[in-house]
Please model this.
Amino acid sequence: MATDIFPTKSNLLQTKRSLALAQVGFDLLDKKRNIMLREMTSLLRDVEGVQEKIDDAFAGAYASLQKANFMIGQSEILNIANYNAVPDDISIRFRSVMGVEIPVVSYDEPKPELNYGFAFTNSDVDDAYIKFLEVKRLTASLAAVENSVYRLAFAIKQTQKRANALKNIVIPRLEQTVHFITGYLEEKEREAFTALKMIKGKK
Model:
């Protein structure tokens, strides 16, 4: 409460400084929130585009895989999958958006290398392999975007909480304190002035 602070000029100056800092802090938090919101909105547009592509890519890849299973048998497809190592071609680094670290996924897309014999396979296997490479690329991209959106959404929520606390609690309380001390000091000055006039009148 405002009355918790003893009404002196030094306390008035200190409270005014605190109020100015709180107002600057609120402005900075508001700008930070707006920048993160713009970034998140941009990423959400990317999610929509990637999601559509990944749905189509998965549908095409599984259709090719079903066809390959039918033509040469599921056990042969499993053998091919087991003897072909998954390349380590995805790397992750981070970039900062207003202090929030969001991932940037780099995918060094390999040249399709068909590391299996051709005697017991056909073009359906090749087609499934190539389509699943595309699925992998899109999945890596989608994972990065979704993770970034999650991190930004959490940071925006925290920033909004702090901004609301400043706007609705801290700043009004400091303004109330300034008003209280100012009123008290002005009243004391009026009393001192009146007393001084009375003393002069008696003299």
User: Anything to note?
Assistant: The chain has three helices and two strands. The chain has a mean pLDDT of 84.
